Amino acid sequence: MIDQQVTARDGNINRGLSVFSLGGWNDDDSSYIQRYISGGLTYKGPFDARPQDEIGWGLAYAKVNDDYNDYQRAVARAGNTPLPSQGEEYDTELYYSIHLANWFKLRPNLQYVVHPGGNSDTDNAWVAGASVLATF
Hints:
Helix content is 9%, strand content 53%. The chain is mainly β. It has a single domain (2-134), classed as Porin (Beta Barrel). A seven-stranded antiparallel β-sheet has the order 1-2-3-4-5-6-7. The protein is elongated, with a radius of gyration of 19 Å. It starts with a strand and ends with a strand.
């Protein structure tokens, strides 16, 4: 994992642009997800009136293990409940984190998912969500 702040706003190191990346390569013989890679940008303190808010954008890629797909096809051939073949999924997300109090943040987000669940037969999807961070 890499997370590096690359700018400071008006000399304030608590505000500015950061870049991040995360990747994982797993054992082909035992893992469901073979590869995962993500990266993106975050900006803390985008507005003078909201110095503790954050905006971010990211991309992600996940590859389902081919051995898992072979298993799924074998189950389908044996006459059991057929399972869809899974391959690659691509995601992008945009969020805005609203700092409402030192102990409370609200983070609405919008995602676009290409091949949800790694299934290329499934329509791409827009997903709206939100998360809450409360620290006591």
